[in-house]
Structures are given as C-alpha cells and as structure tokens.
Amino acid sequence: MEKQYIKKDLVADWESLQRIFIRPEDDASRETLIKYMEQILFGLHDFLNKNVGVTEAISLKALTDLYKETVISPHPEKKLADVISDIIQGIAPRAVNVASPYFVGHMTAAIPFFMVHLKAIVAALNQNVIKLETSKVLSVLEKQVLAKIHRLIYKNSEIFYHTHVQSTDTTLGSFTTGGTTANLTALWVARNLLLKPFDRFQGVEAQGMAEALKAYSLDKAVILASPRGHFSLKKAGGILGIGHKNVIPVDVDAHHRVDVLKLNRRIVDLKKNGKIGIMAVVGIAGATETGIVDPLDAIADVCEDHGLHFHVDAAWGGPVMLSERYAFKLKGIERGDSVTIDGHKQFFMPMTCGMVYFRDPLAMDAIAYHANYVNREGSVDLGIKTLEGSREANSLILDSSLKIMGTRGYGLMVDHGIETAQGFSRAIHARELFEMVTEPELNILTYRILPPKIKEQILSASPGEKEKLEDRVNQLNIKVQREQREAGKSFVSRTRIRQGTKDTEGQVVLRAVIMNPMTDMDILNEVLDEQEEIAKKILQSPEPF
Amino acid sequence: MEKQYIKKDLVADWESLQRIFIRPEDDASRETLIKYMEQILFGLHDFLNKNVGVTEAISLKALTDLYKETVISPHPEKKLADVISDIIQGIAPRAVNVASPYFVGHMTAAIPFFMVHLKAIVAALNQNVIKLETSKVLSVLEKQVLAKIHRLIYKNSEIFYHTHVQSTDTTLGSFTTGGTTANLTALWVARNLLLKPFDRFQGVEAQGMAEALKAYSLDKAVILASPRGHFSLKKAGGILGIGHKNVIPVDVDAHHRVDVLKLNRRIVDLKKNGKIGIMAVVGIAGATETGIVDPLDAIADVCEDHGLHFHVDAAWGGPVMLSERYAFKLKGIERGDSVTIDGHKQFFMPMTCGMVYFRDPLAMDAIAYHANYVNREGSVDLGIKTLEGSREANSLILDSSLKIMGTRGYGLMVDHGIETAQGFSRAIHARELFEMVTEPELNILTYRILPPKIKEQILSASPGEKEKLEDRVNQLNIKVQREQREAGKSFVSRTRIRQGTKDTEGQVVLRAVIMNPMTDMDILNEVLDEQEEIAKKILQSPEPF
C-alpha cells in the first residue's frame, strides 16, 4: 500500500535537505500548500465539514490494516505537497469531525478559526518557556496571563497582583499540558505541603512517602474526592505514591454532588484515627460525566474548619466564571487552595493546554527544582516549579483570544451552552421515548431511551425482573448510541452513571455536551429524531437486543 | 500602555461572536492575516530573522514593567488583525530567535518550515488522541508511528511488529509532552513493576509506596543514575514518592560516563543490604550538559546480571540512531527496557513532543487506568496507559516528517551536527585563549576562556591561590557569556561542570549545541571572534572582574 508512493527520484542529500528545510521543493509543491493552507486558515469550518470524517463507515479492523507497515524509508518517500495532500485526502476523511455542531458528545469541540493562526505562530516562534533564555518576552507574558486568570478566580487586590504579576519569588500558577497534569501538579503540591520538612526530616519530595509517613507518625495519606471526579485524580494518587486506593470517594447526594455533612463526618472519623493524614479534599466544578458542580462554598467551610487543602477541579467548568449570568454557579471556587482549568476545553483553545492556580503565591515552592544549565534560583525561568519540562508558549494563544473576544465573548459562549442544554432537556422531557437522567447544571446532561412499556414493567417488577429489564434498557441504549455514531451524522457519547459510591456497573446513559456555538435546538431535535428512529427500528425488529 | 488600544466600537454580542468564530471581521483584517501567515508559512526563516529577537537590548525590569496589567477587558480589546500585528511587531522582536544559526546554546533550534504547516493542520483537525471517539484514524496512525520508532530502536522481527503494531492488548510506547514526562512515565512503569501486586498486596499503584515497601520488606526503593542525567530524573523520584534523595548518582569516569565497574559494585552493595529495592538504572544517551553517551551496552550487561530495569534517557541522542555513520555510538540502546526520545529536539519538531518506548509490549499495563466515559478495557483508546490525559496528534507531524526527509535525511542532519561540533572543537583548540572542557561525543561540547597567563599561574599555584584563580576564570566566563548574549548577535549557553559525583559548585563552562543545519564553521569562528574580543576588553579593563 505504502510502496506505490516511493519516488525513486527523491534522494536525501545535504543540498536538497537544506532546501526543504526552508522552502517547498518547487512551484507545484508551493501551489498545493497554498491551496490547502488557505482553506485551513481562512475557511476552517467549511474545510472541516467538507474534508473531515466524511469517509463511509470503515471498520476498525479494515482501518488498522492500512496502518501496519513499520519500516521507515531511508530516502524521502514523498514530496511535501504529496504528504500534505495525503493528509487532507487520506487522513482527514477518517478523522473525527469534532467541529460539527451535530457532534455533541465530546469535550473537544469546534475552535474559532483564528486559533489555528495563533497555534501556527506559536509553532513558528518555537519558544521554550522552560527558561528565559529560550523565550524571553514569552516567559514574561506567561506570568501576566497567569495573573489575569488568577485574578478572575481569586479577585485579590490590585496591589496583590501588582506585587506578584512579575515577581520572581512567587508563582500564581502554571500552564500545563492538560487537566490531568494540572490536577497532578495541584495534588503534588498538596502532598508536599502536608508532608513538608521539619527538624531533620527533609520532606516527602526528598525522602519519599514511606519516610514521610514515618516522620509524621502516620499510616497513610488520603485524598477525599467526589466519586464523580475525573479519573486523573485516582491516577494522581497512584503516581504520587499515596496509592489510588487512598483517593477515597466521599458520599454524594441524589444530584451527584458531594454531601457536605457526610464529608465532614468522614473527616472527623479519619482524624479520630490519628494515623491518617488528609492531603486534600477535591471538589468538582463541572464533572466530566454530568457537568455537576459540587457545593464549593460549603466544602471550603469544611476544609477551613479542619485546615485541609481544598482543590477545585474546574478543568471543565472554570470558564463559567466569565459568564455574567452563571458565574454564581461556581461560588466558592475562590476559596480553593488550588484550581485546575483547561484551556483546550471551554477556553476553546486547540489541544493541548491546561492550567493550575494556587491561592498562596508561595505554594508552588513545595515543588521547586533547580538545574545548573536550566535555571538559577531567583530567576524568572518558568521551568523551576512545573511538572513538565519543555513547554510551548500557549499563554500567547489564551491572551490573544481573551483580547479578541473579551470576557464577555467567552461569557456569551458559556450562556449559549447552558441555555441550549436547558432547551435540550425540555425537548427530552417532551418525548415519551426518553428519560432525563441528570439535568444540565452547566452544559452537560445525560438521558436515556426508556420505552414507556418497559418503564411500566420496571415499576411493577420484582427485583430480579427489574434487573433484567434494566439490563435490556442498557443494551438498547448501547445499540442506539453505536448505530448513530457509526452512521456518522451525529454523535452523543455514552457512559454509565452509578448511584452514590456503590461500585456497581451503573446505568447506561447518553451524554450530551453542548459547547459548540453553532449547535442549536434544530440540530438537537434532529439528533433526537435520529435516535428515536434507530430505537424504534430496534424495538420493532424480531431479533432480541 | 494597553489602554490606548481599547476600541470602543468592539462589542461582544452573539452575532459578532459567531462571525469571528468562523472568519475575519472584515477584508482589512483578512489582508493583514494573509500577509503575516504567508510570511510565516512560506518564508519562515526569513521571517524569523527579520522579526524575531531584533529589539535592542531591553532590561528584564523594563520588559516586565510592560506586562503588569492583570485585568481582562470584558469587551473585545482589539480586532484579530491588530492582535496578530501586535504579536509580530511587539512580541516577536522580544522573543528569542532560536532559529538563528548563531544561536548555538540551546537544545531548541531551527525547525523546517513545513513543521509549521503540519502543526497548523494538527491544530485545525483538533483531534484528541486520548480516545478513539475523538481521533479515530489518528489513534491508529499513532500506534503505527510508535511501532516505526520502536523498530528503529529494538529492531525486532517483522512478525513481532505485525503482531503488535495495531494490537489493542499491547503497547509499544507512548507519545508524551516531552522528555520530562517520558522519563517520569518510564520510571513510573519501573516502580510499578518492582512493587507489583502479589498475593493479597495490590501493588504500589493501588496501595502506595509505604505499603509497598512493607509488603516487600524493604526500607526504600532507589534509582541509580548518572550524576550527569537530566534533572527530570530526580524530579521523577520526588513525584513518584520514592524521594529524590533516592535517585542515587553513580560514579562517573573522567569523561563523565558511568563507571560500570563501580556501578556493579554499588549494586552488589545495595543488594547485600537486603532492604533496598533497585527500581531502575538509568543510562544517558546524549547528556544535556555535555552530550556524552553512557556505555549503554555495558550497563545493560550489569542490569541483565542483576535483573534490573534499564532505562535509557535518549531524549537528546535518540535520533543519532538514524545516522549511518554514528548510530554505533548508541549501541546498547536496544537493550533498554525503556527509552526516552524527544520529538522537539533532534527530530526537529515544534514544541512539545516527547516519546517513551518499552521493550516489553506488556510493560505499560503496569500503569493502565480505565474510566467509563473515556475508555473500556480492550479498546484502542490511547489514554488508558499514558501519563497525560488529552493529547494532540503529534504522531502525524513526526510521521509526515519522516516521509519527507527519510531516515537518511535525519541522519545527514545528525552527521552535520556531530562533524561541525568536531570542527568547532579543533577551532577552539587552535586558539590559545580557550580551553576545551568536554569534547563533542555527539554535537554538544563545552569549553572555557582561559587566558594563558592565568593558566600558567594556576599550574604553579598553592591550593588556596588556585581556588581564587579558578574563581576569577569563572567570573570571566560568566561575564563574556552574558555580554555576548546581551549583544544579541550570537548565543552560547553557560553551565557548571563538576568532576565526579562531588557536590561542589563546579567549573563554569561555555556550552555549544550544534543542531541547526545552517550553522557552519564560518559562523562558529565569528562566535569565537566575538568572545575573544569581549574577553580581551574585559582583561584589559582596569576594573577587576
């Protein structure tokens, strides 16, 4: 398959190499590149709709069979223009059109066209913000952007920001490569603050978890988090050496929010034990599966009472702060000792950008590292207190976008998402084939197909029968979601929602994430129509499902 | 400063927001964008030389004063075209021209112009390879590219790669966001393999370090690594809960390479203790400061004898495998249980891309996580066994570049770097004002300015005098490097080289990294001329230095 492309006239030699380093091989190549780059840069959404995800269904097996060659050609295989053409004609049609307003199952959505321009500029400058030497003004800009977002969250005084915005002694936060590493960074800091150096003990970072627990006379350290939290929290527990079993799910109420009274009781019990250190309590602002927001203010009260680190995972929900109408939903976020926010989610930035913020400008000192050739103490080098090493200048993208759209522009997108999700919920309630499972507190909702006949049967069924019926409903929803996805026109995702902290399989639900500003009720009704159609076809089919 | 730009006529409303999401506000904006994007995409290196890092010296203080405003405007501050113009005219001139062939102090260098095209395409597609649902063919392609590079390293059989390239049960490696997270991933796997589940112990990942050491009757776990290793190794020790003090520097020889006999003795001693678990031994292929390569084959022998995990940090040196002339220098890399290679270093990709590979296709099972809404067991979702969550499709960039340049194209760049560094070394030897410190095993070398008069004095000085003289030489080198950097025409970096594992301050050296294919001996002689000139001026000045 690949072989046919091998051009015998393409030879890697020093001269042609130097040429291709700086410009296209020939005018034909240049023309091809111009054509595509113009489409991408100035007609992005038309381009995506025309070129991406348009291939007829191909089975995964058939697709993987096309990508099995593992030998790299010693000589150039293709001219640049052919490589780009192959991407547009061969790869793009089999990618996923995450930008389609009919694809409402992802947290990856359409991005404004100018984001591609900004990303290209960042790539062209190719600065490495790990150190001032390879970034200069971009390091300075990053500190400014961090302060701007910190101010959005914490709303401290002008003098506070004036003091810290460019201070080399303090750190308001850090860009990361995503929510996972942002959460990991926050919990890394929390671990190091709990098990910090004293007397002759040099701290957990230097001496490790076992020595640290010994020094503090503890059996273990734990993190308390909602069972609806992102799986990166458990992963962080595993990575940090506290053990993912010690990321303890706390009780949630019927709305899947942390039950604060039970949280408090749990903390009291753990403290009574005397041998368990509580590293952090995590509240969620926009849970991945349901979009719900934990009662942040109340959790903050509990954490304050007990002197615990309060981490807010607002990877998804963070930008709701920019909405004049709905910012109140995040009340209490400003009391988080650390806050995660993703850039590539509701800041509409391209992959991959996360951020983590700390209320205390000295908190990140707990994870400072130095290396001679990288950075010297007291330098402005941003690599001293970050998980990641080399990093691109993503702050330039966020800063530019904030200038282009203003907080109000972002706020309007948030409003659109939340209000369209509310409309979607009403549309679901109005159809008898559907059942709402979790209402959209933000712009995420879950629902399921529940034929009225089966619903009735469930109501009057014995526990054993009920389980069987629920299982049938689960299978139905799985089938509908799969068929809709495979048809390729629209997409909602699918997950399982458990009640409480129970470790059961849970109910299969369809999950919609309304973040694309082009998604409206007409489109969403089409999505539901298609689901109804598929479901009815399945229900009428003589085959069991 | 920022205020003057606020355009009162820019208002965030839903209509204008939807418009700016998909295209420039007006024709004038479009024109501006086209002008700049054309320069960036088709005249990258001219553009960089003309626009980047061209501002006269500005003190860091003066620069930071320009970036202190921390309030985000509610309404759009600027039109898109103005934002882009500001970046080109205001930010770029104060960034660092990492692409200049005179800037030979970074590991961040010029990238081929087409990398910017590829990055723009990746941003436009905005796939998230954490899961098949948001990436489809890009997940499949990533597995193929991982297999291609795995094959470069490990050279297993055709049937091995046929079996694993698209297998959903096995994993040959992972893209990461850089060498730091690649090293962290490798050591995370090594930790979990050492302290794996048995009987009723569920493994370190689940139960944490303290329980794990108890279960294995150990006092601590350690990593043995060259003291010339990257600081991310220590950081990994800290993050993983083993403690960075337990990343133990092993002895090196006079050439800064791991002393294998002493390594072996160290391991024997540690094992005799009986209470210390050795998690991994780390060999470096291209040390950050000196470019040296540890005796990988011999270290592999030792690790094999003792049954230890051997990690090779080839973040820098990895692509030397592509050189027909110098691949031999990495002999033994194929015996690494895990190998780190950076994409944004000698694969000439834009920030940020790292990779980690594992010899055993089942090794990464040790770090597998599952989440209902993300991935189901046995799926092809790439997010199951990675440190990072969301990730962009960087494999598309590497794959394309390999097709455009071939392994031989990359090999020629490697050859150029190494041979130019050798030429640079000869030029340094030929000048009496300079002293070579570490010869270029690959394309990195360190040297220093050592005036012949002072050199003679050092030879005949008492220990106390000697120290004072060495300190003077250090100060001279610091001054020269700083003045050259501030003059802005060329750049070498500066670090300190210690002898052995001693925790002394070490000798100040100038460090050159020759990776830009445009850097040649004429340029390097100019760099040395400039250093001589600055040094002589300092030496002749009546002021002490």
Automatic annotation (TrEMBL), chains A, B:
GO terms for cellular component: cytoplasm. GO terms for biological process: carboxylic acid metabolic process. InterPro entries: PyrdxlP-dep_de-COase (IPR002129), PyrdxlP-dep_Trfase (IPR015424), PyrdxlP-dep_Trfase_major (IPR015421), PyrdxlP-dep_Trfase_small (IPR015422). GO terms for molecular function: carboxy-lyase activity; pyridoxal phosphate binding. The keyword Lyase applies. Its cofactor is pyridoxal 5'-phosphate. The modification N6-(pyridoxal phosphate)lysine is found at K345. The keyword Iron does not apply. Keywords: Decarboxylase, Lyase, Pyridoxal phosphate. Belongs to the group II decarboxylase family. PANTHER family: CYSTEINE SULFINIC ACID DECARBOXYLASE (PTHR45677:SF8), GLUTAMATE DECARBOXYLASE-RELATED (PTHR45677). This is Glutamate decarboxylase. It comes from Desulfocicer vacuolatum DSM 3385.
